[in-house]
Amino acid sequence: xxxxxxxxTSAFTKAVANGTVLVDIGAEWCPxxxxxxxxxxxxxxxxxxxxxxxKVDGGTDTDxxxxxxxxELPTFIVYKNGKETWRKxxxxxxxxxxxxxx
Length: 102
Description:
Blueprint: H1 9-15, E1 20-26, H2 31-45, E2 52-57, H3 62-68, E3 75-80, E4 83-89, H4 94-101
């Protein structure tokens, strides 16, 4: 367990309220989550995509996980102005993430 305080569901809701937000629900001890890091780095380097990456720790932020119904790691969710527009459980390709954010 880390010493990081758990993200509150109200803080999460506020974080996804405006613009395009890619939520990455994962954990450092999760091999598929770690395997996604290079893909997320490439996504960040993509030109023409305007989004914010919000990392949710699957080991710490359990209230947020329950509130969004994420049972597996990793889970990726795209919110546009507070509304969920896309969700994928398990590893995602760069193309899938780019298309979800556009």
